[in-house]
């Protein structure tokens, strides 16, 4: 989780730790996209108003326009994984945060997703993970989609993390888990099957939430 949080807070730490409400509201009027009021976001997420202020300042430092596009997201994300290729995983991660499916991430979308990942219930985290793996957003995870995500994670972590990794390891990993998840053997995994399988198998739960270590 450090990559996403870090990319928003690393410049914020260089600034003064406290600013009054007037300054925060003034900052929000000076960007192309003005986010919802902090009170509303506080009600919609698991963050306090003070935490939202810190996150917003970091977001604005990295994305002065108030929104982040995919290329910018990839560029920032790649800095945290210098030994691998993070572009593919960053693409899928970007799409999961981009709930409006319009090619950009607003501050509201970002903090809503981050709230789920950091402080959501197990059910909420698994639902978010399901949407990450459901690349084409048809409500199902195919074996091909799961393989794409797993391979992207391996590529991102790089040869220094997996020095002896063979090309078929991601496929073997997916085959084992997919067999357990696809309860009715119809070739796809539903949200219900995904959540149930992860809740029943602690090892699978940890593996499917690997994203928490690469966020």
TrEMBL record:
Entry superkingdom: Eukaryota
Pfam families: EF-hand_7, EF-hand_8
SMART domains: EFh
Annotated GO CC locations: voltage-gated potassium channel complex
Keywords: Calcium, Cell membrane, Ion channel, Ion transport, Membrane, Metal-binding, Potassium, Potassium channel, Potassium transport, Repeat, Transport, Voltage-gated channel
Record-linked InterPro entries: EF-hand-dom_pair, EF_Hand_1_Ca_BS, EF_hand_dom, Recoverin
Region (Disordered): 1-20
Subcellular location: Cell membrane
Domain EF-hand, chain residue ranges per copy: 85-120, 121-156, 169-204
GO biological process: one example: regulation of potassium ion transmembrane transport
Keyword set includes Ubl conjugation: no
Predominant localisation class: membrane
GO terms for MF: calcium ion binding; potassium channel activity; potassium channel regulator activity; transmembrane transporter binding
Record's keyword annotation contains Repeat: yes
UniProt family annotation: Belongs to the recoverin family.
Listed name of the protein: EF-hand domain-containing protein
Gene: kcnip1b
């Amino acid at each position: 989780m450090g990559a996403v949080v870090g990319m928003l807070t690393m410049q914020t730490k260089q600034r003064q730790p406290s600013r009054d409400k007037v300054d925060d509201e003034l900052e929000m009027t000076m960007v192309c996209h003005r986010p919802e009021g902090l009170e509303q976001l506080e009600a919609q997420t698991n963050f306090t108003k003070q935490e939202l202020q810190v996150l917003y300042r970091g977001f604005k430092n990295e994305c002065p326009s108030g929104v982040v596009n995919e290329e910018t997201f990839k560029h920032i994300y790649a800095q945290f994984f210098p030994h691998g290729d993070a572009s593919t995983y960053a693409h899928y991660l970007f799409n999961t945060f981009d709930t409006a499916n319009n090619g950009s991430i607003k501050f509201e979308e970002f903090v809503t997703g981050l709230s789920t990942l950091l402080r959501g219930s197990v059910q909420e985290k698994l639902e978010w993970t399901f949407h990450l793996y459901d690349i084409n957003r048809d409500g199902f995870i195919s074996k091909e989609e799961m393989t794409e995500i797993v391979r992207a994670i391996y590529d991102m972590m790089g040869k220094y993390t997996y020095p002896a990794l063979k090309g078929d390891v991601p496929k073997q990993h997916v085959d084992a888990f997919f067999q357990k998840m696809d309860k009715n053997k119809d070739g796809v995994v539903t949200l219900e099957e995904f959540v149930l399988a992860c809740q029943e198998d602690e090892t699978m739960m940890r593996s499917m939430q690997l994203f928490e270590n690469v966020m």
